[in-house]
Amino acid sequence: RRDVLVLTPWLAPIVWEGTFNRDILNAQYMQKNIVTGVVTFAVKKYWFFIQGFMSSANKYFLAGHQVNFYLFTDNPEQISHLQMAPENHLFVIPVQNHSYWQGISVSRMDIISRYIHSQFQYEVDYLYYIDIDVQLFEHIGVEIIDTLVATISPWQYTARRDSKSYETRIESQAAIPKGEGDFYYTASFYGGSVAEVYKLTRACFKGVMEDRENGIEARWHDESHLNRYLLYHKPMRLLSPEYYWDEEL
Amino acid sequence: RRQDVLTITPWLAPIIWEGTFNSEILDSAYTPLNLTIGVTAFAIGKYTRFVGRFLESAEKHFMKGYQVNYYIFTDNPETIPNVQLQPGRRSVTVPIKKYPSWQEISMRRMEAISKHIAETSHQEVDYLFCLGIDMVFYNSWGPETLGDIVAAIHPGYFNVSRSQFPYERRSSSADYIPDGEGDFYYGGAVFGGLVKKVYEFTRTCHMTILTDKANEILAARQEESHLNRHFLSHKPSKVLSPEYLWDDRKPKPPEIHLIRFSTVDKNYKEIRD
Description:
The complex is a heterodimer of chains A (about 250) and B (about 270).
Chain A: E1 14-15, H1 22-31, E2 36-42, H2 50-60, E3 67-73, E4 89-94, H3 101-123, E5 126-130, E6 148-152, E7 185-193, H4 194-213, H5 222-232, E8 237-239
Parallel strand pairs in A: 1-8, 2-3, 2-5, 3-4, 6-8
Antiparallel strand pairs in A: 5-7, 6-7
Helix pairs in contact in A: 3-4, 4-5
Chain B: E1 15-16, H1 23-30, E2 36-43, H2 51-61, E3 67-74, E4 89-95, H3 102-119, E5 127-131, E6 135-137, E7 149-153, E8 186-194, H4 195-214, H5 223-233, E9 238-240, E10 261-263, H6 268-272
């Protein structure tokens, strides 16, 4: 691929179709006996997306490798019998409903970090957060596996640095100084080793709480905090916008 | 950004060329880790004459600002010159046994490195590079080269097709690579990585060397053949472009913007006897 950037200035690969050979990567992955987890939330009306997400993820997400799906929902009864691939496992975890959309969005970081600490770290090596309202149309494989992985937001891919959606008010913990910032990452798909995801989610939640105490809410909520964290803790691997596209674009 | 060369392998390992990385960002990530980088180099017989220039040039260009331990393996410790080093950097002479032929010496390097790691350097360094002594640093060699398992593309073969790589082609050898296989031709004068990883692969290489020896096979290019076989099945996590392993006898092609580490002109016949 010569038409796109395939390496960041800190030498993290940017994964695009055509840059990798999945067979070679699969062979390396299988040698290490790794288990990967996916965490997602289906709260209130979002239960509607469960079927679509789970059936496409079962088919296309790390196909052929063991995946543990951790589904947080306030509606566990709504989950019809889902067909899981034989190597995958589904764990349904009930959560509380929250009144506001932001309410659930920002406490996701807290829930994820607490569950990593109490459970996930013993069950998986790598963990990825993915929004429930996505469907996979193509294979997403082991090319995504690395210590700390973020996805370039499709909306922001071509935006110049000064027009990216970073939080700029310095009163917020998510603030990124003017003129800084490598890429704009989406909070809809990120992950890495359980240790790194733990640190990331804890740091983001901490930022959110401090902002709340100071009466401020970051422009794009947890995504703003994620972007600030990743500016100072650079991801080891980036996923191109192919990995999180928006049909409206 | 480089569009004229391959900057990532099919297994997503970066290939390091000038223009692909930002040294400031890398330094800010690596400096706080307080790393010590080790270098092994073999100065056997007449090769001790290269030590002075190797060390002097390394002091100017190799991992500036980091702690460095140079391990000079030699059968002639008295002839190793004393070179003035920067603070935080030191040089250690590692005496080794004399062997009857240069081929034998060459074969024993892997064994010497792995033993030394097990006995000494694993406690002293985080990363280890194994470099040829008959070489000189001309430009910066920095943290862009650090990785779990690091190999360098041989300057003579970076622009040719795989069928021309001088892999070991005798199927009876432990280093055999069949036609149609192989990613790159890696040079034997530069390899490295985390000290634990370097231990693993120098041990493995030494075992295959012994296997061949028992079968009375001397691989086509000695340990370079073993290295290439090893890196085919255990792919490097980072690949250095020929900027990091150049041969001064070659004319500089347009892809090479900067020569960082290169051979010293010498008379092979005179030196090897």
